[in-house]
Amino acid sequence: MDFETAIEKLSFHCGSNPAVDDPRWENGFLQTLRPYTGKLRTDVWTDLLSCVEAVSDHLRNSQTLDRRLINSLWGICHFARAWGVHEDGMLMRNGLITAEDRSTLDDWICTLSDRIAMMLDTGETDCDSKKT
Description:
Layout lengths: L2 H12 L27 H13 L1 H6 L5 H18 L5 H4 L5 H23 L11
Helix pairs in contact: 1-2, 1-4, 4-6
């Protein structure tokens, strides 16, 4: 996947892409949490990781980071945690997410944010392979 394709896909994953009528909108990572259907989608998670891999060279080596990329990555981590993991988040507050799914979502967010942080800091691409 090339960089621009990954940027576009990440914008759907975070819900910032304005093309809400595009079918890709429904398969965005955050969109699978709102409304939550009672099941985490590993296919969407896998696609999100593929997008991160496609932008990894940029995160490791660019002197100037693409604002669209950072917006998408930050939004995915922030809102997934706020909605699905935090005690007062909408999924917990409304009893929509199981303890098991909450733990899995937390692991996913930690894995994603760890990978991004390591790419930005040291150039590493796989800081926690046991969680994938």
